[in-house]
Each structure stands twice: as C-alpha cells, then as structure tokens.
Amino acid sequence: MRSRPITRCQRLFRSSSTTSSSTLRTPPTGSDVEALDAGVNALTSVSSERSTGGYGQLQGLSIAIKDNICTSSLPTTCSSAILQQYQSPFDATVVRLLRDAGAHIVGKTNCDEFGMGSLNLNSVHGPVINPFQTAPNVPAAQVEHRSAGGSSGGSAASVAAGICDAALGTDTGGSVRLPASYCGVVGLKPSYGIISRWGVISFADSLRLLKAFTHVDLDTVATYDPRDPTAATPDLRERARQFNSPFLSVTTSTHQPRSLEGLRIGIPLEYFPSELDPSIVDVLRTVLRRLEEAGATLTSVTVPATQYTLSAYYVIASAEASSNLARFDSVRYGLRTAPPLGATASKSSDVFAHSRCAGLGKEVQKRILLGTYALTADAFDNYFLQAQRIRGHVRRDFDRVFRHPCALLERPFPPEDGVDVLLHPSAIRTAPPLDRTAQESHSGDKAALDLSEYLQDIMTVPASLAGLPALSIPVGTGADSWPVGVSVVGQWGCDNLVMHVGKAIEELS
Hints:
By secondary structure, the chain is α/β, with parallel strands linked by helices. It has helices spanning 31-37, 93-100, 153-160, 177-183, 215-221, 234-244, 278-293, 306-324, 348-359, 362-374, 380-401, 436-443, 446-455, 461-466, 495-508, and strands at residues 13-14, 43-46, 62-66, 104-109, 166-168, 170-171, 186-189, 209-210, 264-268, 297-301, 421-425, 470-477, 483-490. The two termini are 21 Å apart.
C-alpha cells in the first residue's frame, strides 16, 4: 500500500489524511485492523474495544502503541519470548493521557526485542514488512519485502498501511526517525524529559524517549509527571518556552507562499559519510534549494564529536541494558523454564541462565554481554566513562552551533552567528531488502552485514546522545523509488520550532 503525503507534524507517526478531529475517520477495530495488517505484520495484538466516542481533544483519533509501552487492556511483550505472557496491571502515563483525551487504542505494534535493533528483524513475532510499494495494486506474490526500520518499525508501518491515524513508540538511538524515513511518514523525537516515560519497559534510561503528535497534540501528553524521575520540571519547561518563543516568528508567517526570512539552517558537514546513498544527497539539495528560495539562510556547520557518537552510544546503551534487563531472571519477572538434565536446581545461576537463554534473543544477549563487560572494574574507565565524556562533548558541540539559549544551562552561551535548526538526511539509504540471504551474498561477508545493521543509526544517534528534539519528514524518493526522509534537529526545548520548520518543509515539498 502506498503511503500518503503528510500534512501535519505528528506524535510519533501520523497519517496525513486528516487535519482535525472533526475530519477523522471512524476508528477501525477487530477484523478491519487485522485485514489491514495482513502481509505487514505491524501489530502483535489487536484491541477488541470500540471507540469510546469521548469528547476530548483527540476524539476519534485511532492510535497504535509500541509493544514496550504498558497497557492494561492488551499484552505488553516487548516482542520477546521472555515476556510473551505478560499483562500489565496499569497503563503507562502517556497511554492514560491519550485515553483521557478521547483517543482510541487499536492495538500494540511489533518492534525489535526490547527496542534493540535498526531493521525490526529481532522480534519473536517476526519481521515487519514495509507497506510502501513503488507501484499501486501490487499482487501479494510480487510485493517487495523491505524493512520497515527499527526498533519502532511496527508503529511506522501501521500508519503507512492506514491501520491507524497515529502511532506511539520509543526512540533510543533513532528508533523513530529511521522507520519514519523508510516508510515515508513523519516521526518526531521530542526533547529528553518532555514526555513521561513512566510505564515504558526500560532498555537504556538515559537515552530512551517517547514521541509526540502535532504541536497541539503534544500539549496533551507533554505534561510533567512526578513518577518519572527524568521528567523536565514545570519551571524548566517554562524557561525553555521563554528562551525560544522569540524564534518562532520566523516559521509562523501567514504569507502565501510562506516566507522563511530570518530562519538560519545549519548543514552539519559530518552527516555526509561515505556510506550515504548519493540519490539521498540529491533529494536533500532539492529541499535546501526550496528553503533558500523561501528566504531561509543556509550555512555549513561542524559538530566534531559526531564521529565518535556511534561507538559511545552502543557502549552506554549496552551498559544500561545490562543493568535494566537483570530483573528478568525468571524468578521476579519473565519466562521460567525447567533446568535441563544435570543442572543444579538449587544453584540460582543455572536457573537464571537457562531461562534467560530460552527467553532472550541473540541480539539482546549480545548487548547484555557487551554492557556487562563495559561495567566491569577493568573496563569501566576505558569504555563507559569515556563514552560519557564523549556524550558531554557532543552536547557542548551542539550548544556551540545553536543560537538559541539552552534552558538546561545555568548561564546559556548561544553564539551570535548560530543557527536555529540543523537539517540532514535521516538515513544513509532507503529501506533495505528483508532478504538477508541476498544481502549476505551481495556483501560476501556476514560480518560486513552485521556491521551495516549498526551503521543504520549513524545519522540519528547524535541527537539522542544530546537529548535534542528531532523530526524526520518524507521529502521524496531515492534512485530505487523508495521514500527518503530528512531530519530537522533543534536545541533542547525547541520542539515547537522544530515542528514549525517541519511544517514549512512539507509545504515547500
């Protein structure tokens, strides 16, 4: 199914067919959802509930929820065998806020196990099939199977396939923006701490974020939650609003066509690696030319620490995953399997190890082992602390680029010649084929294939390490006619500015 053009900047992923709650379609339920999901595998469970028809701000909006966000009415499996039978007794804060606002939950979306992956291959429910097709009405036998991206591939695919109006997911190192780019939809990662993470099953606490709808819908869910220790306080939110409200005027022009006079856009030189598909650069140049014609000022900038971010990210994320996933020991939480013959049932390590090996996938096991090593006494200084230092350098590099004051700093020091936002490709290529055998034969090296999976995050990780808002917007197609996205990145707290710029790009495209 061809994805439709986007007309608003949405929460995580948003369908483009509507612009207000009064024009929303009747939320699909049951067999309708299952029929739309056939051949896509975007959902792990489907809600049997019908729309409540409430009177909230999101009345009539159908939303899918990523399978690592707790819902009391549907299973929460994290797409892992170790949690396949888990039913949460409560709703995550953001789910409760959505329900209270009148939104209808249609189901839970497939994802990489515990959110660990970039291609949505590491799921006990099987891979998600990208619903975008280069030709309409393609027979099922001829559908090209490409990745929907990960880890929130099910959320992006559910919107692209028309299963829901919007979908909710999580972003640790690009798990929203990458699927958005591959599937041709809009994906937003807000500033760290803006939306409550209470009720999200932990992977990497200092990196993981929930996503947000439009600038109107963002207010519905972007509220302070005292149960989330990482939530930005009301005072900090107000400070960010005061610091950045003067810059919104350049993107809210009522002129037709829209004028972007005064908007400064930075093009980071480090975001054009050798792995980047040349056809994506061509699409980006077209977008930049249109922005310049609309009055925006373009300038090249440099973020030197970018070259180290991928390594730092995987050290930090793996270390935090090792700590967080220790709770799934088959005693307190998780799958419990009988120890094999010869194992000592009274020895806790035998019981834990066997159940965790049976319940956790290979990618999760790999990251737990890497993270455990990074936290050992011998490796802690050389790996984990070094990665945290790099994270600080990345944050300072971004602060030197933006002309907006950072509300997180006691004494903001924005440069006079700084930029309002950064613009760069969302991914190094279009959606890769799901035929791993063909990929391996093409590369001739299994190790090269494994490395390429991690390289998918190279464009999205820096904003995650710095906790900055980032929005991926579909702007065209690559040489293979599959979607290409560009990312708008702003200073912490500048979520509305990022969304306004994204809106302008959509109109100009």
